[in-house]
Amino acid sequence: MDFETLSADLRSLQDRALKEISAAADPEALEQLQIQYLGKKGELTGVLRGIGALPAEDRPRVGAVANVIGEAVKGALASRVSELHSVVQARRLAAEKVDVTMPGRPIARGTLHPIPETIEAIVSVFGQFGFVVYEGPEVENDLTNFQMLNIAPDHPARDLWDTLYVDIPGHLLRTHTSPGQIRVMETEKPPIRALLPGRCCRYEAVDASHGFEFFQVEGLMVDEGTSLADLKGLLDEFAHALFGPRKTRFRPGYYPFTEPSVAFDVECVVCGGIGCPACSKSGWMTILGAGMVHPVVLQYGGIDPEKYQGFAFGMGVERIANLRHSVPDLRYYLENDLRFLEQFR
Ligand code: DAH
What we know:
This protein is an alpha+beta fold and 345 residues long. The chain folds into 2 domains: 3-95; 114-344, BirA Bifunctional Protein, domain 2. It has helices spanning 3-23, 27-38, 43-48, 59-95, 114-127, 142-145, 179-187, 228-243, 295-300, 317-325, 338-341; strands at residues 132-133, 139-141, 171-173, 192-201, 213-223, 248-253, 258-267, 284-293, 309-316. Helix 5 (114-127) crosses helix 8 (228-243) and helix 5 (114-127) crosses helix 10. The termini are far apart.
């Protein structure tokens, strides 16, 4: 090995390196070239290993040539890196490209089902008058669903509630939320202002206004000096809050657990009282049953009827929801048809 051969090798190495560097298409290729030429086991290092075989006076000269070549290769790598910067940027821009003209993907927003939504609306009105929500069981016993509400086993009023019985003796699917009155009276002392929303079941032929499964909200107030006038005032507020300023009226009704019992009517929310098919041309719609809690029922609930009076009311949630949302048939509520439910967004 002599100086001439070695420096020729170095020059051809430089030519090759510079050519390859300027042809490198991406940063990864450049990195490979850096390793290939300048790395610890790289070609330049390889050539320099031959220095030892040269006469001592030639060694610094070769070293100087090698340094110049090393710097040239380093410089070429650096300038190619900055040239390729735009390649890298273009690549990133392509990968992260957002087409701002694409229509957005709509986020599916959930909504309350109209039945719980209506229960919330009812609860929020009575809540302003201090009524608090309680819950009773859906599987009730005969005693609480009927007997303690003044409906004896042989009472003809049982016909009002066609009952679904369960396999547990003395138990049934509650036919109304009224047994909740007993449960509240058993656990709370007057003054009581209770609301009891919940699912009820009856053995009914299903049609547009009857389901074997439906919801009610029960209300109960017990205090000293509670009167029918208090009930009327409260129900008026309720009707106005839900249906706007409309006339209301009490009609006599019958329930074994209230005395007197009333039906509470609101001026037809469809025709405003003129008379239309929705109100059977009467101009009125009955929205709930109510009355003064029968003294016997207070007694069953452990409350002294000599000292306290109470009123109670019970309403069908589907009926209220129908009127709020102009739904003609309560079967829609349980069919889980999204075309129906999505209208309540
Ligand atoms: N429980 C009755 C029904 O299901 C509704 C009702 C009427 C509830 C009068 C009451 C009431 O609390 O006082 O038809």
